[in-house]
Design brief:
Layout: H1 5-18, H2 26-37, H3 48-66, H4 75-102, E1 109-110, H5 113-117, E2 122-125, E3 128-131, H6 133-136, E4 142-149, E5 160-164, H7 167-171, E6 181-185, E7 199-208, E8 222-231
Parallel strand pairs: 1-4, 6-8
Antiparallel strand pairs: 2-3, 4-5, 4-7, 5-6, 7-8
Helix pairs in contact: 2-3, 2-4, 3-4
Length: 236
């Protein structure tokens, strides 16, 4: 009994479908990878751009698959990557914003060591060197700032140390400018500091040196009587 053309066509189509393979577009795989990388956003804010990039590429991948008329597969991969990126972006952003908002002790003002102090430098007033008016305005205020500890060979039980504006001056033999250093004094009653080669945070009463003529090598122009010391929670 001979087979009809329709039967032969159906059998051929069935065999082809049995071994049918639909490729996954590269954008889908990249979205999934970025989704896993975005998990780092729960630890560091610098991973948040990966989550944003994953969302953008994931949307493009989803559109590419939906418009392929069944030629592409991997929609599950895209959805998984998009879900991870969205969750990490939302949760990571909320977490880092919370840490930033709560890291400054109550009653203290956040100040940037580089922008608000170091870059101001000294100025000339009536022909004499003096502190910049913006820095003088901080004299006597309770401030919170971040910097790097200048190593002096000790590591534990520090009651006094020099805080520099960046790690290059501390770790590579640089000679900091007077306005790039703050002398930190930790009075009795406050736990002493431990040397750390990364970014640290200090809060306390800020003051300018009473006599610039007494400032010399590694004798900073500023001082903080610290009431709070810890490793910096954020890098900014």
């Amino acid at each position: 009994m001979s087979r009809t053309v329709e039967q032969m066509t159906a059998e051929t189509s069935g065999a082809r479908n049995e071994f049918d393979y639909r490729p996954v577009p590269p954008l889908a795989a990249v979205t999934a990878v970025l989704g896993f990388i975005s998990l780092l956003a729960l630890i560091t804010e610098f991973a948040l751009p990966f989550a944003i990039l994953g969302l953008v590429l994931g949307i493009l991948a989803k559109r590419q698959i939906s418009r392929s008329n069944g030629e592409y597969s991997g929609i599950w991969l895209v959805r998984g990557g998009l879900t991870l990126c969205a969750l990490c972006l939302c949760c990571g952003s909320a977490f880092h914003a919370y840490v930033y908002a709560t890291e400054v002790p109550e009653g203290y003002e956040r100040v940037s060591f580089v922008v608000d102090i170091s870059k101001k430098g000294f100025t000339q007033i009536e022909g004499q060197q003096d502190f910049h008016p913006d820095v003088k305005a901080l004299d006597g205020k309770k401030i919170f700032l971040k910097g790097y500890m200048y190593p002096d060979g000790r590591a534990e039980g520090l009651r006094q140390f020099i805080l520099c504006k960046d790690s290059g001056e501390c770790c590579f033999g640089g000679k900091p400018a007077l306005t790039d250093m703050i002398f930190v004094n930790i009075p009795d009653g406050v736990p002493p500091a431990r040397y750390y080669d990364g970014l640290v945070a200090v809060a306390g009463d800020f003051m300018v040196a009473p006599d610039l003529r007494r400032a010399g090598e590694l004798k900073p122009a500023y001082r903080i009587d610290a009431s709070h010391f810890e490793l910096a929670r954020k890098l900014y």
